[in-house]
Each structure stands twice: as C-alpha cells, then as structure tokens.
Amino acid sequence: MLGTVSERAPLSAEWPDLDVDTAYAIQDEALRQRRARGETLVGVKLGLTSRAKQQRMGIDSPLLAWLTDAMVLPAGVPVPHDVLIHPRAEPELVFVLGRRLAGPGVTAATASAAVDRVYGGIEVIDSRYADYRFTLPDAVADNGSSAYFSVGPVGLPPASLDLSLEAALLEVDGQIVDTATGAAVQGHPAEALALAANALAARGLALEPGWLVLTGGMTDAVPLRPGSRVAAHFSHLGSLTLAT
Length: 244
Known about the structure:
Layout: H1 11-14, H2 20-36, E1 41-47, H3 51-57, E2 63-68, E3 88-97, H4 108-113, E4 115-125, H5 136-141, E5 146-156, E6 167-172, E7 175-181, H6 189-201, E8 212-214, E9 222-223, E10 229-234, E11 239-243
C-alpha cells in the first residue's frame, strides 16, 4: 500500500479468474520489491479474522499478509495521510514470537507456547480498491490492505492473561465508538496465530523468532481523518493513541 495514493478497481474486475494462490504470489513479489528497496520483514498480519467482518466484506476466510519495518508507526508520529487513500484504524492484539513456529498441525496451545509477549496495538488499513469492495484474492494481492501499525507500551506473557476476555475500547475524539474482546478473533487470538503458522506451512514457510503477528481487528475499523484523535484502551495492555 505504501507509496501510492491512487485507488483502482479490484484486480478481479480485469482478471475474473484470479485465485488465492496467484494472489499470494503477487503479494510475495510485492514483498520482494520492498526488500529490494531496503525494507526488513518483521512479521505477518492476519486479516478478516472476525466472522462479523467476513460477512460484512463478503469474504468467508481470513488472510495473511506481510509486515515490514516501513509499516511501523512510532508513538507520536502522525499518520501520513498524503500517501494514503481512505485509511481506517482498528485495535488488535499483537504477539511477539519467542521461538520459531512451524506447521502443519499447530494448535492454539502450541502457538501460545511460542509467544514471548503480547501487546495491544492499532493497525491502519488502507485498501487501494475503491469503496473497499473486493474479493478475497483481491485483498490478498493488496497485502491485506496493510498500511501502518503501532504497538502499545505494555507487553505481558500470554500465560498471564485470558486473551479471549482481554477487552479493547476504541475511542474517536473522546467518544467510545466500539468495544470487543479477544474472542472476536477466531474465538481466541491463539487460534489466529495457529492458523497463520499452518497457512504458511502450506507455502513452505514458518513464523520466525522475533516476528510480530497482528492477529486481526477486534472491532470494526473506523475512518481516520486528519485532526481526529483515535485511541485504543485494553484491559491489561495499556492504551495507545494515533496522532492524525
């Protein structure tokens, strides 16, 4: 998503036979180009992990996308609206892996055991497709609408939390506009992590030590407008605010 301010029709409008495998090949080529420009791979994100969001977008399964260091938005750095089209923000639970996690056959329990710390975060998504209308292959090819993400200040061992009950409040300009718990993410965020490991295994890949894994939006994503204040407040993982 970075580096473009032009929206377009979905790829599937021109190539109706676009399938998920081809879309992941497009995504991988985009990552290769990012790395050639000097970006560093720092992890993966899951998209559309909430059933409600899948239904809203007309998509029936989650997706994976790559994260690089150029997508990190440090605390206090404003969201760069000049390189975005129609950004939205959503709160997420973020895992930092302590060891390699390779499928197939990864369960939520084995996934949790591979996590060093869990943080609260906010992801800024920005689909390049007009009106956020796309098929699953379109979304995959667009690297899951990835733009930027911020990670909060509090990191805890996952065993110290009930992540299915960890709550997030999404605030816009001082008003709470949405709430959710970790159960909104595949029933439990560790299920999303296991899904990521097993999906990567089918492509001959694994989740590596030190990687960040954004487990998927807990609430609906809210539009980001210049000058607005968007914050996420977590039960045990602190708060973070986007400078817009």
